[in-house]
Amino acid sequence: FFIFYSESKKHVLRQLVYAAVFCSSVLSYVFFVSQRRPQLATTWLGFLCNGLTIIMLGSPLVGLPRVIRTRNASVLSPFLCIVTLVCSVAWTAYGWVVDDIFLIVPNAVGCFLGLVLCSLLCIYPRRQSPQLTLSIPSLASRTH
Question: What are the Cα distances from residue 144, in Å, to 115, 136, 138, 140?
Answer without folding.
Answer: 54, 17, 13, 10
